[in-house]
Design brief:
Elements: H1 19-22, H2 29-36, H3 42-53, H4 60-64, E1 72-76, H5 90-93, E2 94-102, E3 108-109, H6 111-124, E4 128-131, E5 137-142, H7 147-156, E6 169-174, H8 189-198, E7 212-217, E8 231-238, E9 242-249, E10 261-262, E11 265-266, H9 272-286, H10 297-304, H11 306-317, E12 323-324, E13 339-342, E14 348-352, E15 358-360, H12 361-373, E16 379-381, E17 387-392, H13 397-406, H14 415-419, E18 420-422, H15 437-450, E19 460-463, E20 477-485, E21 491-499, E22 517-519, H16 523-537, H17 544-550, H18 553-556
Helix pairs in contact: 6-12, 8-9, 9-11, 15-16
Length: 557
């Protein structure tokens, strides 16, 4: 005998915290703090109270939440090894000093700006200064007592730390050769400036589900890693409409890497700010806020699909539909700007490399002086942690390169030095498991000593944790920090390895060997071994990424 039992009602899914669907009631502590007050109100408290009364006067919600909107957050307490990461609370890991992130939207620097940041570094940051792959400069060891004076000095040269961190639109990546490169499709600088001056100050963009990353470049090299940004505009020549932009949305790395997707549209430069604001608006109103690890635009794009995303953008956020166009093909080849390259006006720009982006305050001052000696007024930071010096006559290139080399930069770096980047790592970051920056510098030195150089491009990335701030999943050799157990049962620093990751025409997230980990103490031997295997086994013209696809596990281990 059968009975027709009533079907169990489906459990109603939990709300995702999408404002336009679930309402704006906060579903976690972070959302509660953001709704209590405008985050930027904390700036005045820093000036009036905290800088006078010291670190211990700062309440927890300000120091761990709202300070991010000001571009500062506490750095890791010294001598706490990676085994404590994830085991201690944030307040237990934090020191009474701050990391400070100085924004360089579009990478726009000058000798004066570098000198001022160098002097701040020298006077207040124990001479720390790191160029980042977001075109910023980060300082460490900042005391709360010194922050108002630092802001005053930065403001005097048009720089800021505001929105350097936090659930806001972060610094806007831009082509470092905008307006000058001979191979440029369109100069994107006016769009970046319009967003920076007329959109970023608006309160409507100051409470997003989480951070929001933007890149805008009109360079044919596609030189702003557009595939892994929340929104990116890259130069596009349309056969009928001429130079404009394609828009990509929904990219990002970390523990759930996703590549951005084209809207399939051609966008004139006049509409780039409007489209940017529309994409940010969608993220604000429909982004997932309940769970922080899902509060990125890429998860919404993955759920909706690109067709629905464009439909919502056009019908709810734009004044008129976009013009259809085929997605822009990805470019192959090197995207960095190392070396001398022609400008449109007959002059040249020169790209040089600080190893893993590391510098000192005194070095920044020396770089500024070298530039001024040659009448250079325009300098650019890049997403590859380079420095570019613009407007150099051909006959002065060698002399400029020689003077920059004397400051500790590399005008002709080896491929190892050219292609290596690292995150902050265990030295200062509360999320890190391993030391990265000093280890990356040591690794480059060891590779140059044991191998010399290599005649093809090779990117190496050292990351202190799974968040992939140094782009481990899209590097030839990507190293993700972990705490491992050695043969004697000791908890030690080590890495999980990604091999053959890439952006561009061969875009992929790399190959992981099952169960393969490398102890930090054995890192040099491992990388040397894999690079030598590549050199011996590669076919003519075969890139490292192509080789890793067919190489056997023994050659990669």
């Amino acid at each position: 005998m059968t009975t027709n039992a009533p079907a169990r009602p489906k459990r109603k899914p939990k709300p995702e915290g999408q404002w336009n669907i679930d309402g704006t009631s906060p579903l976690n502590k972070e959302e509660e703090v953001k709704q209590e007050q405008e985050a930027f109100e904390v700036k005045q408290r820093v000036i009036d109270t905290y800088s006078k009364q010291g670190f211990d006067s700062i309440p927890a919600d300000d120091i761990s939440k709202r300070f991010k909107w000001l571009g500062i957050y506490t750095q890791r307490k010294q001598n706490l090894g990676g085994e404590y990461t994830g085991q201690l609370e944030n307040h237990e890991l934090q020191d009474k000093y701050f990391m400070m992130r100085v924004r360089f939207d579009g990478g726009q620097a000058t000798p004066e700006r570098l000198r001022v940041v160098g002097e701040i570094s020298r006077d207040f940051a124990r001479s720390t200064a790191d160029f980042t792959d977001r075109q910023n400069i980060q300082l460490h060891w900042i005391r709360i007592e010194d922050v108002p004076e630092i802001w005053r000095r930065l403001d005097a040269v048009g720089l800021t730390t505001m929105m350097g961190c936090g659930d806001v639109p972060r610094v806007i990546l831009g082509s470092p050769t905008a307006g000058v490169a001979a191979d440029e499709i369109i100069d994107a600088s006016p769009a970046i400036e319009e967003i920076k001056e007329n959109y970023l100050p608006r309160a409507e963009f100051h409470n997003l589900p989480r951070k929001f990353k933007t890149a805008i470049s009109g360079n044919s090299r596609q030189d702003v890693t557009h595939e892994i940004q929340d929104v990116a505009f890259i130069g596009k020549n349309h056969p009928e409409y001429g130079p404009g932009f394609d828009c990509f949305v929904g990219g990002g790395l970390s523990t759930n890497p996703m590549l951005s997707q084209s809207l399939g549209a051609w966008i004139p430069i006049e509409r780039v700010p409007e489209v940017w604001a529309g994409v940010v608006g969608i993220f604000r109103d429909y982004g997932f806020r309940r769970l922080r690890n899902r509060a990125r635009l890429k998860f919404l794009v993955a759920k909706w699909g690109i067709e629905k995303f464009r439909e919502v953008l056009e019908t709810e956020y734009l004044d008129s539909p976009l013009l259809d166009a085929e997605p822009t093909p990805l470019q192959s080849g090197i995207r960095d700007h190392i070396g001398a390259h022609p400008q449109k006006d007959g002059n040249f720009y020169l790209g040089v490399k600080p190893t893993v982006g590391h510098a000192t305050g005194e070095q920044l001052i020396a770089i500024a002086e070298a530039a001024e000696k040659h009448g250079i007024t325009r300098i650019r930071t890049t997403p590859m942690k380079e420095l570019l010096f613009l407007d150099i006559p051909r006959e002065k290139l060698a002399e400029v390169a020689r003077d920059l080399d004397a400051t500790g930069l590399y005008s002709k770096p080896s491929e190892f030095r050219r292609g290596i980047i690292s995150c902050t790592g265990l030295e200062f970051c509360k999320l890190a498991h391993v030391t990265t920056k000093s280890r990356a510098i040591e690794l480059v030195d060891e590779l140059e000593e044991r191998i010399g150089d290599i005649d093809s491009s090779l990117t190496i990335s050292l990351n202190g944790c799974p968040n992939a701030c140094a782009r481990s999943q899209v590097s030839d050799i990507g190293l993700k920090g972990q705490t491992l157990t050695d043969d004697e049962g000791n908890r030690v620093e080590g890495f999980q390895v990604h091999l053959g990751g890439a952006l561009g025409i061969e875009q992929n997230f790399g190959r992981k060997l099952k169960g393969h980990k490398v102890l930090a103490s054995e890192l040099g031997d491992y990388v040397v071994r894999v690079v030598k295997n590549y050199k011996q086994q590669r076919e003519e013209g075969e890139s490292f990424a192509q080789w890793t696809v067919r190489a056997d596990e023994e050659a990669l281990s």
